[in-house]
C-alpha cells in the first residue's frame, strides 16, 4: 500500500498529465480499499488500519505520539488483580511500570501556562515570533479554561462570524430526545461560558447541525426533517431561539452544508438535496405556523422520543433541487466542507462503514455534481474536515485537515492526492477529531481522542512537533471548534462514566496530590483526611510529618452523608498527578480554552460531581 502511494507521489512530482494522473488514482483506490479491508479481516484483526500514505524520511511525514502507553487506570487494575492473586508481592518500581512522572516533577517550559496542560519534553524552535502574540499564547498554552454542562454531544458548529456556537446532542429519558444547545459568543460577558438550550420539535435524535451567519440561523436535522432556528433575538437580550423553517428531507439522511447564495444542502445516497432559504415558507412571527401538512405519529412513523407532545407536526418544505452523483450512485457521505479557496467545490468524506470505500472526493455542485479530484490515504471513515477559509496569508487557501476513525489526523493540499502530514491523534483504537487553526497565520493542529487518551493534543505544524496535551477532565472529545476572532478553542466532550440516566459508574475516591491542597478550590490539608494503607491520616499527629510527600496516599474529603467529595474514574487514562490541576469533569461538558498572553491560568473549571457507586442505592 505504501508502494502504491509512493508511485502516485512520484507521478505528481514528475508532472504526469492530469488525465493520466486521475486514471492512476482511480485504479489505485480500489486496491487500497481491499488492503484496508484486509487489515480489518480475521487474518490481521487490526483495531485500525496503520498509516500507509506517509513517506518515511520524505516530505510527507508521519508524526507519532511519543507518549504511547497503557492507561493508568487499566494498569492499576491489572496490578491490583495480580497482587490479590498472589502473583505480585510488594510495590513495583515506577520505572518498571513505565508510569509518567508527576506534573510537579517536571520543569514547565513557560511561566504562564495553564496547569491543565502538560508539555512534551525536548521542545525545539516553535513557530511563533514576537510579532505573532496569538500564536505564541496558543503554543505556550497560556489560556483560561472554563466549562459548562451539556447534553451527550453528537455534533457542533460555529458560525462563520463567530456569533454563536451550536451543538446537537441526546437528552431526555434515556437520551431518546433531540437537544439543541448553544453558547452566545457575541455577548458582552466574555468571562463566563454559559450554555443554553432550546426546545427542538424534531421527532427523533438529531445527528447533524449547521449555521448561517448571514441569516442568523441554526439548522438541526434528524432522519426525516431539518429545522432552522433564528438567533437574531439574542442580540437584544432574548434567550430563546425562534423556530423559522421546517424542511422535509426523507431519503436524505446525511450531513448538512451551507452553500453560497443562501442555499442549504443535505446529502443522501448518491445525491444531494438543496433548499433555497430566501423565500422559503416560515413558521411565522411567533414560530407556530404549520409548514406543509400537519402530520401525526402514525403518518410520520415511530418516534424515538418519549416526550412526543413536544414534537412539532409540520411535514416541511420540499427541496428546490436534487443533484445526482452520476459518477458514483452509491456515494454516502459522513462529512463534508467547502473547498478552502473555491466555494463551488465541496470536499466529501465517505461513510466508509456503509460503502466500504475509503477515498475522499471533491465535487463541483455548480456543475451538476461532477467529480473533480479524489484524495487517498484514509484507513477508515472521515469524521471531520476543516479548512483555511478566509485566511489571507500562509497556505490556508489550499489546505484542509481531516479527522478519522482510524485514530489519525491528516493535512492535505488540494493540489495533491495524498496527505502532506499524518499525525497520530489517538494512540489506541477509537476515532480522532481534528481541527486546523491559524492564529496569526501560524498553522496549529488540535486533535481530540474519542476513546483512549482522554485529552486534546496541540501540534505545531511547521515545526512538525507535538507541543502539549490539554486536559478534558477524563472526558472523550466529540468535536472541536475554533473561534479565530477570540483566539479560543471549544471542545464538546462526553463523560464515559455517565450512563443514559445521568448517573455515574466505575468511580473511586480521588487521590488529590498534597501540593494542590488549598488551590483550585480544594480545601486545605487540615480540612480533610488522609486515606492511606494504614488507615486515615490524622493531620494533628506530628509523628506523621514524614509522610507529607506525595507518596501515593489519597486525600479524601467527605460530605455530610459520608460520600467522597472528589472522585476519579477507575479506568481513567491519566492519573490524578498527570496534570498540574487534578480535575474530573464528571459530566458531558463543553470546554472553552481562551488563549491570551495575560491569561489568568488559575481560571479552571469546577470539579465534577461524579460519585462512587454504593451498594445500598
TrEMBL record:
<protein>
    <recommendedName>
        <fullName>WD40 repeat-like protein</fullName>
    </recommendedName>
</protein>
<feature type="region of interest" description="Disordered">
    <location>
        <begin position="530"/>
        <end position="561"/>
    </location>
</feature>
<feature type="compositionally biased region" description="Acidic residues">
    <location>
        <begin position="530"/>
        <end position="550"/>
    </location>
</feature>
<dbReference type="InterPro" id="IPR036322">
    <property type="entry name" value="WD40_repeat_dom_sf"/>
</dbReference>
<dbReference type="InterPro" id="IPR015943">
    <property type="entry name" value="WD40/YVTN_repeat-like_dom_sf"/>
</dbReference>
Amino acid at each position: 500500500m505504501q508502494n502504491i502511494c509512493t508511485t502516485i507521489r512520484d507521478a505528481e512530482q514528475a508532472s504526469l498529465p492530469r488525465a493520466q494522473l486521475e486514471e492512476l488514482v482511480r485504479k489505485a483506490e480500489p486496491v487500497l480499499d481491499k488492503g484496508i479491508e484486509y487489515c480489518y479481516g480475521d487474518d490481521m484483526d487490526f483495531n485500525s488500519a496503520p498509516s500507509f500514505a506517509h513517506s518515511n524520511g520524505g516530505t510527507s511525514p508521519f508524526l507519532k505520539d511519543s507518549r504511547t502507553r497503557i492507561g493508568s487506570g487499566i494498569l492499576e487494575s491489572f496490578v491490583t488483580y495480580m497482587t490479590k492473586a498472589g502473583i505480585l508481592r510488594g510495590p513495583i518500581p515506577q520505572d518498571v511500570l513505565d508510569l509518567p512522572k508527576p506534573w510537579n516533577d517536571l520543569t514547565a517550559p513557560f511561566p504562564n501556562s495553564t496547569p491543565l496542560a502538560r508539555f512534551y519534553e525536548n521542545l525545539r524552535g516553535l513557530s511563533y515570533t514576537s510579532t505573532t502574540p496569538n500564536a505564541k499564547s496558543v503554543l505556550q498554552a497560556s489560556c483560561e479554561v472554563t466549562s459548562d454542562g451539556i447534553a451527550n454531544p453528537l455534533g457542533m458548529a460555529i458560525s462563520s462570524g463567530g456569533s454563536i456556537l451550536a451543538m446537537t446532542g441526546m437528552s431526555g429519558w434515556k437520551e431518546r430526545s433531540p437537544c439543541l444547545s448553544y453558547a452566545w459568543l457575541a455577548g458582552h460577558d466574555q468571562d463566563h461560558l454559559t450554555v443554553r438550550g432550546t426546545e427542538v420539535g424534531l421527532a427523533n435524535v438529531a445527528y447533524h447541525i449547521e449555521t448561517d451567519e448571514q441569516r442568523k440561523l441554526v439548522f438541526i436535522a434528524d432522519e426525516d426533517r431539518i429545522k432552522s432556528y433564528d438567533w437574531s433575538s439574542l442580540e437584544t437580550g432574548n434567550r430563546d431561539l425562534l423556530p423559522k423553517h421546517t424542511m422535509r428531507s426523507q431519503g436524505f439522511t446525511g450531513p448538512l452544508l451551507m452553500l453560497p447564495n443562501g442555499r442549504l444542502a443535505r446529502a443522501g445516497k448518491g445525491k444531494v438535496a438543496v433548499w433555497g432559504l430566501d423565500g422559503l415558507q416560515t413558521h411565522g412571527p411567533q414560530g407556530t405556523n404549520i409548514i406543509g401538512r400537519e402530520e401525526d405519529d402514525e403518518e410520520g412513523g415511530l418516534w424515538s422520543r418519549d416526550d412526543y407532545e413536544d414534537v412539532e407536526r409540520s411535514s416541511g418544505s420540499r427541496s428546490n433541487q436534487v443533484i445526482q452523483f452520476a459518477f458514483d450512485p452509491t456515494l454516502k457521505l459522513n462529512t463534508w466542507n467547502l473547498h478552502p479557496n473555491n466555494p463551488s467545490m465541496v470536499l466529501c468524506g465517505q461513510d466508509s462503514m456503509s460503502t466500504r470505500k475509503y477515498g475522499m472526493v471533491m465535487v463541483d455542485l455548480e456543475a451538476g455534481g461532477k467529480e473533480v479530484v479524489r484524495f487517498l490515504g484514509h484507513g477508515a471513515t472521515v469524521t471531520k474536515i476543516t479548512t483555511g477559509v478566509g485566511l489571507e496569508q500562509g497556505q490556508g487557501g489550499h489546505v484542509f485537515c481531516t479527522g478519522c476513525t482510524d485514530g489519525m489526523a491528516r493535512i492535505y493540499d488540494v493540489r495533491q492526492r495524498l496527505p502532506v502530514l499524518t499525525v497520530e491523534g489517538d494512540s489506541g483504537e477509537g476515532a480522532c477529531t481534528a481541527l486546523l487553526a491559524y492564529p496569526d497565520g501560524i498553522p496549529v493542529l488540535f486533535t481530540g481522542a474519542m476513546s483512549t487518551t482522554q485529552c486534546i493534543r496541540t501540534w505545531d505544524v511547521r515545526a512538525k512537533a507535538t507541543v502539549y496535551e490539554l486536559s478534558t477532565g477524563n472526558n472523550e472529545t466529540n468535536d472541536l471548534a475554533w473561534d479565530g476572532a477570540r483566539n479560543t478553542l471549544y471542545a464538546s466532550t462526553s463523560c464515559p462514566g455517565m450512563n443514559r440516566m445521568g448517573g455515574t459508574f466505575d468511580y473511586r475516591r480521588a487521590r488529590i496530590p498534597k501540593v494542590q491542597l488549598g488551590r483550585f478550590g480544594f480545601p486545605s490539608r487540615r480540612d480533610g483526611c488522609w486515606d492511606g494503607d494504614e488507615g486515615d491520616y490524622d493531620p494533628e499527629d506530628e509523628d506523621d510529618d514524614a509522610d507529607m510527600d506525595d507518596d501515593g496516599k489519597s486525600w479524601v474529603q467527605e460530605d455530610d452523608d459520608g460520600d467522597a467529595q472528589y472522585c476519579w474514574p477507575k479506568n481513567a487514562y491519566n492519573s490524578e498527578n498527570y496534570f498540574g490541576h487534578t480535575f474530573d469533569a464528571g459530566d458531558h461538558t463543553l470546554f472553552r480554552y481562551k488563549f491570551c498572553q495575560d491569561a489568568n491560568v488559575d481560571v479552571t473549571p469546577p470539579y465534577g460531581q461524579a460519585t462512587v457507586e454504593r451498594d445500598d442505592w
